[in-house]
Amino acid sequence: ELDFESKTSYTLRIEVANRDADPRFLSLGPFSDTTTVKIIVEDVDEPPVFSLPLYPMEVSEATQVGRGYVAITILDINDNAPEFAMDYETTVCENAQPGQVIQKISAVDKDEPSNGHQFYFSLTTDTTNNHNFSLKDNKDNTASILTRRNGFRRQEQSVYYLPIFIVDSGSPSLSSTNTLTIRVCDCDADGVAQTCNAEAYILPAGLSTGALIAILACVLTLL
């Protein structure tokens, strides 16, 4: 095997010649040529290795505790994909306007790269053209989720699931798809969610439609 640390280049002298020369032209020979080829060995990033398989040390049995230490540093590799920093509880108001930020998300990674983390956010390819929500990568390891329309109605759809693609800056990079759950809510004037469950009109227990109509007719008569 080649080893850049021990030898960085090789020089070869190569000759090429006719295997079968025509006897009539031997006097015009030689029918060969030579050239020099220089091979450069490129350096690659290799893991550290001990120069010796065994390191013997002689220590007197009378040596006191505390003769020195051998420190071994374990280097981190990129073997964990990024994921949501927390379980987000995202809501969107029924009266939300287009372009409104409804959630800011971030990511975490169990790896510890020497240059720090750098995450990239995007919607998955099958949701990039959806008409409900969009994603903006803030370039600071966070992303914002925005509405693309107004008029969300709980009665039509109370929950949306938005797959988000996250990539780290490791070498090689790793990625994961995390799903953000977005609930449609009835909000007050300040945009604070009040009710997020899909509501349906249910008759009081024990009353039929006919009985309810009769009661309403009585009330109208009294009025």
The fraction of residues assigned to DSSP E strands is 25-35%
Low-confidence sequence ranges: none
Oligomer: single chain
Number of helices: 1
Q: Which whole number gives the mean pLDDT?
A: 87
The tally of beta strands, per DSSP, is 11
N-C termini distance: 102 Å
Domain module count: 2
Using only CA atoms, what is the Rg? 37 Å
Look at the structure and give the CATH class of the largest domain. Answer: Mainly Beta
Any idea what the CATH architecture of the largest domain is? Sandwich
Transmembrane segments: 201-222
Domain Cadherin: 2-50, 84-201
InterPro entries: Cadherin, Cadherin-like_dom, Cadherin-like_sf, Cadherin_CS
Main location: membrane
Features:
223 residues, mainly beta, Immunoglobulin-like, 2 domains, 5-stranded mixed β-sheet, 4-stranded antiparallel β-sheet, 11 strands, 32% strand, Cadherin-like_sf, Cadherin_CS, calcium
